[in-house]
Design brief:
Chain lengths: 357, 357
């Protein structure tokens, strides 16, 4: 599998990642290496990671943050900044973010803002982080319950994708990450959608291959439009309503919140319904998408009261402009269209459609 | 006076600034304009500013933060982020930072990180912010007592320098900003040093001209090296010890802390002493620099206990690498040299020299 390069960053895959990392350490001679983990990756991934890297010449400090979406906060950021300060990180220090999307998003933000920017490397350990969060330079934390509201766009020096970490992951986490792969199908081509909708998670080689293809799709979009002026917005398909659904459940009960991909799956069904009714997505395509997503993710109860709260949350979506909610919709599978507005009643119709499935 | 342009940003001066701003507003049609002020600029500068801009088509929200260096904190950032969220800032919103260095540094950081980056414009109202802080894209806040430890480098869309705001400024603030102008002399040329050391603050036209020249010097350095990989470090002359002196007094007694320029003036004397003893700065030049600075800023008591604390603080300087403290020194007036290390005893000798003046 080939490495995928953009202007500022490079993604390496599987067998070669530790060689590449060791070469990088030898070449750049960081003054110290700070590895950010969470409670889970500290236990399940760090021991293996440390056997793979050659740090005879380098001082390593390991930092651990609590696991989970509800810890992607300014408070945790402050803790990591203070740890960097206490252990005397300087501008030649390197940060390695070893974990899922929360660790790579928060760690990337911390590194990008400490002393106005340290180098950092992402080592994603969840499927979601491998195919989405760790790639493309979006870093960020939540502002209260507003997802990723504070952050910067700054690609790390490298992303090292070793699919073997997926073996440490609970099945529910893998399935959650799969939602972003399905999204890559819907926004890129009918061919890729047909491939990914029949993925076999037991076939490790084919999964690793799909990860590679998905990263390639994401990187080719990002490298055209790193600052999300236009094209990059297509990666937000399913995310306008999906983020609002995710925020709603996170606000209500942190412990039983939906995983990111589970919320995005709901968002993709809702936004496919909007696509069918406002642009040209066919009824067959809508049913196909709905069937794949419902059979993978099941259904979540969304009564009227929940719908009202979710619609209220839409107003904070990052893609909004001049007070208008902007959707990415599908003209067909593989044919996204940007900056679409829809009426509020149609959004409620979409919820009714979802509930009727 | 000509505008000064870099890759991403443009600085306008005096008469033309409000025209330029009004043209910018007409062209970009921001969804909302958020003006960040502090207690002082809200009172002394905002009323005039509002009479100059044409906002008939634009919604304006004014935000006010408390005045002073001790408020350049994460807590205030959070307050401004939350205000942006409450008043529904979106990616097409514009932030205008109307104030001294604290407002432009913190406001630039808030804008650069809100929704992963809003456009912003600096309108510096202090001499320090006009010739230094508001220009060149360094944004940041303090981490506890560590100055500017958290931030990003991101130039705003424009800097609008209207020297008339200086008339609202206490004399002590003007003199503080003058330290950065003196620094521009020391790092750029003997000619400019001779010009700026005899500045006449009562002659408004000549002061406006000096501001223009100083911004030109700073911008020409920054545009060669925005990320401070090399050349830009020369702007830190006087700042390695100066920042530590500033932090020391800020830690001790926030209300009687030194102003930034007052601390940097001490730093420039100390680092000129180091320059004389380790590189080729002549004794005459050292005396010339010391005389100008002492006659402008007077002397501050730095007993042994203070010296010890200040030396301890040096270890957190942002230019350090691999545990070594890196100084910018002067081979001669106008001839800075980067990445110099000196022995601890020589630093204590520099304090003795300062105390003997």
């Amino acid at each position: 599998m080939h490495s995928i390069e953009t202007n500022n960053s490079i993604v390496h895959f599987n067998q070669k990642v530790y060689n590449e990392l060791n070469n990088y350490l030898k070449k750049t001679q960081p003054s110290k290496v700070f590895i950010l983990t969470d409670t889970n990756t500290h236990h399940h991934c760090l021991p293996y990671f440390l056997t793979q890297i050659d740090y005879s010449d380098t001082l390593i400090e390991v930092m651990e943050m609590p696991y989970g979406e509800s810890h992607k906060t300014l408070e945790i950021c402050l803790g990591v900044w203070e740890a960097l300060s206490e252990y005397l990180a300087d501008r030649n220090s390197l940060m390695i973010n070893l974990g899922g999307g929360v660790v790579t998003d928060l760690g990337g933000f911390v590194a990008s803002t400490y002393l106005r920017g340290l180098s950092y490397i992402n080592v994603p350990t969840s499927l979601l982080a491998m195919v989405d969060a760790s790639v493309g330079g979006k870093t960020g934390i939540d502002l209260g319950h507003l997802k990723n509201h504070i952050g910067v766009i700054n690609e790390g020096s490298m992303v090292l994708i070793d699919a073997h970490y997926l073996k440490t992951l609970p099945e529910r986490e893998v399935i959650s990450g799969y939602a972003e792969i399905l999204k890559h199908g819907l926004i890129s081509s009918l061919d890729y959608w047909e491939t990914v909708k029949q993925i076999n998670f037991d076939n490790f080689e084919s999964l690793a291959d799909i990860i590679h293809q998905s990263v390639k799709i994401k990187q080719s979009i990002v490298s055209e439009d790193i600052n999300e002026a236009g094209l990059r917005k297509i990666l937000n398909f399913g995310h306008t309503l999906g983020h609002a659904v995710e925020s709603y459940f996170l606000n209500r009960d942190e412990d039983n919140a939906l995983l990111h991909g589970e919320a995005i799956a709901i968002g993709m069904i809702l936004e496919s319904f909007l696509s069918h009714h406002t642009v040209s997505l066919s009824e067959d395509a809508l049913y196909d998408i709905s069937n794949v997503l419902i059979s993978t993710y099941g259904k979540t109860s969304l009564p009227k009261a929940a719908q009202n709260e979710i619609v209220k949350l839409l107003i904070h979506d990052k893609k909004n402009s001049h007070g208008k909610i902007q959707f990415v919709l599908l003209q067909d599978i593989g044919q996204p269209i940007l900056d679409q507005t829809v009426s509020d009643p149609l959004i409620y119709d979409a919820f009714d459609y979802y509930n009727s499935l």
